Amino acid sequence: MGGIYSHTPTRPDLQSEETMEKIHLIINGTEYAAEVEPRLLLVHFLRDQLGMTGTHVGCDTTSCGVCTVVLNGKAVKSCTMFAVQADGARVITVEGLAQDGKLHAIQEGFHEEHGLQCGFCTPGMQMTTYAFLTKNKDANPSEEDIRWAISGNLCRCTGYVNIVNAVKYAAKKMYAAEQAPVEKPAVTPPEPTAEPVRAGNGGGGQ
Ligand code: FES
Ligand code: FES
User: Residue 66: nearest ligand to its CA?
Assistant: First the structure.
């Protein structure tokens, strides 16, 4: 995908050249190179320097999960990580879910099952769901497993029932086809032989 995008800090007046560190990472399939202060949180790098505001900030203390992104296949709270710690990583944010203008199965699930009201928790919920389903690869995850998977994400609106249904919807859409039992081809009975085989001793008595 594309070339390497370089980014300079949006508030150069607050940056000190001596403390800047170079980072290089792949976000939603695109390579980015940037210079950041060591104290810059990943969520602020995504939002303020790259303009990826789909990743939200809520508590800023690792409690609510709205800042969740997928980093090297795992759901991480980007308010708890420095951007420099993500150096060399592959990151997926909510902006990376839809492809070619088509919603991802997870986004479709939240839409179809009414898995959101205000939508503030939704990007984090969806990225946690993405990490869970891509690891689990099960078309029918149990309700207990789903609730455990999203237990680090808080929603103040929906009461979780519809979110769980949205995850179930997405799991089916992502994996039902590949887990459907393969139909065995019908066995054709052999043609009857012209001469019935005679039972008994055909070779003469002894
Ligand atoms: S903003 Fe990161 S967990 Fe709440
Ligand atoms: S939909 Fe409002 S916080 Fe979850």
Answer: 1
Distance 173 CA to ligand 2 centre (A): 23
Domains of the chain: 1-96 (3.10.20.30), 97-178 (1.10.150.120)
Query: Which pTM value belongs to this model?
Result: 0.83
Sheet holding 4-7, edge to edge: 4-7, 30-36, 21-27, 90-92, 68-71, 74-77
Nearest residue by C-alpha to atom 3 in ligand 1: 62
Ligand 2 centre and the CA of 2: distance in Å? 34
Query: For 177-204, what is each residue's pLDDT tens digit?
Result: 887 776 666 666 666 655 555 544 443 3
Residue 120 makes CB contacts below 8 A (sequence gap 6+) with: 56, 58, 66, 156
Helices 105-112 + 122-136 axis angle, to 10: 120
Tell me the CA end-to-end span of the chain in Å, nearest whole number. Answer: 85
